[in-house]
Design goal:
The chain has 396 residues and is an alpha/beta fold. The protein contains 13 helices and 8 strands. The radius of gyration is 21 Å and the shape is globular.
C-alpha cells in the first residue's frame, strides 16, 4: 500500500469525524482473460433466460478484443484518482472497490470491510442515471451481499444520488464534441451537414417508464431515464455552441440508443444508433459526432458498439465519423464524484443545478426505479424507512 491509499489508511482513525468509515466504488465488472468471458456473461444475465447462443454471440465481441474488458482497469484507475482527490481534500476515508459481476466481487469487498471494522459505507456507482439497472439494482446487490455475509444490521451502505447533472461529468463530453466539430468544420463540412448523436444503453421501455420516482412525477413516457439523458444532451449542446463560435448554421443533435439485448418481442428504447446513422445519411448529413453520454468509461460496449459497429455503418454510408471520449478519470469528473461524497460527510457546498429539470433529493426516494420482476431487498440511499424495512425483513 502506498501513495494516497497509505495516506487514507494512516488517517482512518480520523474517520470517526465523518458519518462513514469508507467509500465503496461499485462497478459493473468485466472479464480479464478469454476463459472469463462466458462465466462473466452468465453472471450478467443470471435469471433472465438469455439463451447460450446469444451469450456466445456477445462473447465474440470480447474475443475480438482479446477476451479482456478494459472496464476493471478503468474502474481501478477511477478508484485511485478518487482516493487521491479525497486525501487532497482532507477527507480521511479509504475508497474500496467491489463489482457486481466479476472480481473483485461486492461480497468479498463487504466481507473485508466488515472484518476490518468498517461498518458504515457510502457507495458511488459507475452509473450516472436513474433506472432499475443503473441504480436500484446496485442497491439490491448491496443488500444481497450483506445478507450473504451475515452483515445485515451491522454494516450499512448508503448510496449517493445519480450524478448525470454534475458539470464535472458533462463538461468533458462538451469539450470532446467541440473538438470534433472544429475538426469537421476545418475539414470542409458545415454545421448543417454534421449531426451530433448522443447515445446511451437501451433498456426495456417498461423499465424506462418506471425509472425515477412516481412521487416526483417522473414515471411514464420514458421516465426519468429518458428525461435525464435529454436534459444532459441539451446542456452539452449549449456548451458546445459557446465553445465553437461562428458555427454558420444550426447545431443538430438527437438522442439514440445502443447495446440492446433481451427478447426481440420485448419493446426497448429506440431508435438504435445504426438506424439513426442511416436516416441521417439519407437526409443529407455528411458527418456524425457520436457522444456516449450514458457511459462513464470506454469499456467494451463503447468500443465495440460504437468504434466498431457504428463506425463501420457510418463508413458504409459515406459519413465522416467522430466518437467523443467518455469522462474516464478526467479531473473534473473525479472532482464531481468527490463533491457528492463531501456533501454527504458535511464538507460540501450547496449543489448547483445546471439542467432544466426539477431538483432531486440527495438520495434515492423510497420505491424509485422499481424492479420489473418484483420487490427485492435493497439498502437505502439515505436512511429510507421503506427500503431499510424491506432489507431488514429479508431472509437468506
Amino acid at each position: 500500500m502506498s501513495g494516497p491509499e497509505a495516506a487514507a489508511a494512516a488517517t482512518v482513525s480520523a474517520a470517526s469525524e465523518f458519518p462513514y468509515d469508507a467509500v465503496l466504488l461499485a462497478g459493473f465488472g468485466g472479464p480479464e482473460k478469454p476463459a472469463d468471458v462466458l462465466p462473466f456473461l452468465r453472471n450478467v444475465t443470471a435469471a433472465r433466460g438469455v439463451p447460450e447462443e446469444r451469450l456466445a454471440e456477445v462473447g465474440r465481441h470480447y474475443e475480438a478484443l482479446g477476451g479482456v474488458s478494459p472496464i476493471n482497469e478503468q474502474t481501478d484507475a477511477l478508484r485511485t484518482a478518487l482516493q487521491t482527490e479525497l486525501v487532497d481534500r482532507g477527507i480521511a476515508l479509504p475508497v474500496l472497490w467491489g463489482n457486481r459481476n466479476w472480481n473483485p466481487y461486492l461480497i468479498d469487498t463487504l466481507r473485508e470491510a466488515r472484518d476490518s471494522g468498517r461498518h458504515r459505507l457510502l457507495a458511488v456507482t459507475t452509473s450516472a442515471y436513474s433506472s432499475y439497472s443503473s441504480c436500484r439494482q446496485y442497491r439490491e446487490n448491496f443488500a444481497a451481499a450483506l445478507i450473504e455475509t451475515d452483515a445485515l444490521g451491522t454494516v450499512s451502505i448508503d448510496k449517493v444520488r445519480p450524478y448525470f447533472d454534475q458539470p464535472g461529468f458533462l463538461d468533458p463530453f462538451a469539450d470532446g464534441v467541440a473538438q470534433a466539430l472544429r475538426e469537421a468544420l476545418a475539414g470542409g463540412l458545415t454545421a448543417d451537414e454534421v449531426q451530433i448523436i448522443f447515445t446511451t444503453h437501451s433498456i426495456p421501455t417498461a423499465m424506462a417508464d418506471t425509472s425515477g420516482s412516481a412521487t416526483l412525477g417522473e414515471h411514464g413516457n420514458g421516465g426519468a431515464y429518458v428525461a435525464q439523458h435529454l436534459a444532459a444532451a441539451r446542456y452539452v449542446a449549449e456548451q458546445v455552441a459557446d465553445r465553437v463560435p461562428h458555427l454558420g448554421g444550426e447545431l443538430n443533435w438527437q438522442l439514440a440508443y445502443q447495446s440492446r439485448s433481451g427478447s426481440p418481442s420485448t419493446p426497448w428504447l429506440e431508435p438504435d444508433v445504426n438506424d439513426v446513422l442511416a436516416e441521417q445519411a439519407a437526409a443529407g448529413a455528411r458527418g456524425v459526432i457520436v457522444v456516449p453520454i450514458g457511459f462513464v468509461s470506454d469499456h467494451v460496449e463503447v468500443i465495440w458498439d460504437l468504434d466498431r459497429e457504428a463506425a463501420d455503418t457510418a463508413g458504409d454510408l459515406g459519413l465522416r465519423f467522430w466518437r467523443v471520449p467518455t469522462p474516464g478519470t478526467d479531473p473534473r469528473f473525479v472532482s464531481a464524484l468527490a463533491d457528492l461524497i463531501a456533501g454527504r460527510v458535511g464538507r460540501g457546498l450547496p449543489h448547483e443545478a445546471v439542467l432544466d429539470l426539477p431538483a432531486r433529493p440527495l438520495a434515492c426516494a423510497p420505491g424509485c426505479c422499481a424492479n420489473p420482476r418484483g420487490v427485492r431487498p435493497t439498502t437505502s440511499g439515505q436512511d429510507s424507512a421503506d427500503d431499510v424495512a424491506v432489507a431488514g425483513g429479508a431472509s437468506r
